[in-house]
Write a structure and sequence with these properties.
By secondary structure, the chain is α+β, with helices and mostly antiparallel strands. The protein has 10 helices and 15 strands. Strand 10 and strand 11 form a beta hairpin. The chain starts with 6 loop residues before the first helix and ends with a helix.
Length: 385
């Protein structure tokens, strides 16, 4: 386990700091590392909890005095017991409930000051895989899926209650969605809040549960979902579709659909990032004499490109902006179409063809000049070095 940092260091204040200075320092750090501002950032979450633990000790004069005198050991051998803070079990709502006065009207995502609001249940996410062609990736595509998932119960409209029954305020938490536990500690009475076990945080209970869904407000069903996949996506990317996942209990919040992208192999092009690679196989006369060739594009059209005489195998052409587009938000523009040139040498020849080629056998021009030989040797040497 990582060694705890000094609480004054955590909040960035001197040991002589006033209560108001400690309060302001904590508020600044908590807002900076709030989970709503740093979604999925575990490091920010730990800093948020660490600051809450430090403030929990230092904002109270009695516990601050004991910390100043004994450090983390606290009075006696028991030490400070704030296992709820900084641990994985500590809920962000609980921190804001305990220190709601610190944030006033500047809470995020419903975590502001005042009493905690009853919570809505969120449905789980769904995962789908979709295999796309390069042509679809180039333009973007809309796909339709028939998805089996949790949907709101049609008999109770997702409420979970029988028709005409409705809900009533939870008798355990009195509509707050949480219950408060008071415990005795070495610093006196301490209060902590937890989700109400009777209503599961909703603040209401159902009088008569729906007979079709058992009071959950959801049942299995099917839905045809249209998913827009942007141009430029790549193998392994995930497209998130908010609100199209499983329905939440009791008309709660729908989950998301996560679409995992796979790519189909293409017979014409090989993808390299946003570039496309095309292998052009030239006949010997065109390589020797030059001429125009047609290069296919991902859009389906063809480009006419003029080659100079004496085009060598291994030569590369780069056609700017003829590749794939960048995914919106992850770059701009389009990649290139890279053309790798090879020269075809026929395996069989007619007698006339053999005679024609034999006539060039002793020509110095067909044996390659010194510059070409040196270039080939250098490529060979670099390959094995």
């Amino acid at each position: 386990m990582a060694q705890k940092r000094d609480y004054y260091e955590v909040l960035g204040v001197e040991k002589t700091a006033s209560e108001d200075e400690i309060k302001k320092a904590y508020r600044k750090i908590a807002i900076k590392y709030h989970p709503d501002r740093n979604p999925g950032d575990k490091e920010a979450e730990e800093k948020f909890k660490e600051a809450a633990e430090a403030y929990n000790v230092l904002h109270d004069p009695k516990t601050r005095q004991q910390y100043d005198q004994f450090g983390f050991a606290g009075p006696g051998a028991g030490g400070f017991d704030f296992s709820g803070f900084g641990g994985a079990s500590m809920n962000m709502d609980d921190i804001f409930s305990m220190f709601g006065d610190i944030f006033g009207g500047h809470g995020f995502g419903g975590f502001g000051g005042g009493p905690r609001r009853p919570q809505q249940h969120r449905g789980s996410d769904l995962r789908l895989k979709v295999k796309l062609s390069l042509e679809e990736i180039n333009k973007g595509v809309t796909k339709k899926f028939k998805v089996r998932k949790d949907i709101p119960c049609p008999h109770c409209s997702g409420s979970g209650a029988e028709a005409g029954s409705g809900k009533e305020t939870c008798p355990t938490c009195h509509g707050q969605g949480v219950i408060t536990h008071t415990t005795q500690s070495i610093f006196g009475m301490m209060q902590q809040q937890s989700v109400c076990p009777t209503c599961n945080g909703e603040g209401q209970v159902i009088k008569n549960k729906c007979k079709h869904c058992g009071g959950t407000g959801i049942e299995k069903g099917e839905e045809v979902v249209e998913i827009n996949i942007p141009a430029g996506v790549a193998e392994g990317m995930v497209v998130n579709v908010p609100g199209k996942g499983n329905a939440g209990r009791h008309n709660g919040i729908n989950g998301d659909i996560q679409v995992f992208i796979e790519e189909e192999d293409n017979d014409t092009f090989v993808r390299d990032g946003n570039d496309l690679i095309y292998n052009l196989l030239l006949d010997f006369p065109t390589a020797a004499l030059g001429g125009e060739v047609e290069i296919p594009t991902i859009e389906g059209s063809k480009l006419r490109v003029k080659l100079e005489n004496g085009t060598q195998p291994g030569k590369t052409l780069r056609l700017r902006g003829k590749g794939l587009p960048a995914v919106q938000g992850y770059g701009s523009g389009k990649g290139d179409l890279v053309v790798n040139i090879s020269v075809y040498v026929p395996r069989t020849l007619s007698r006339e063809e053999k005679q024609a080629i034999e006539s060039f056998r002793n020509s110095d021009n067909f044996k390659g000049d010194k510059q070409t030989k040196d270039s080939i040797f250098q490529k060979f040497k670099n390959y094995f070095s």
